């Protein structure tokens, strides 16, 4: 959490970001496990750098999802993979269902020492 007994007050935006990152943690963590072939990947400095939403076309023959017409969210998260000296940028979206986020794009960037 961003707040301690002696720290500055935390804004609502920071709390919302922490809450959303907590919900996305299983997807982020499992993606790093696959990417680095590690059971316990070390990461820190998770940040949401962008959130966007858009509507998909309505399709009466499909369930309410991005494929059948719904509001879709795209979240871009950046995390630091500690042991690999890399920053990993992940694009997550809920196109397959309103409650399920999946990674649709990954970009790895080396950290300069």
TrEMBL record:
It comes from the Bacteria. This is Uncharacterized protein. It comes from Cohnella xylanilytica.
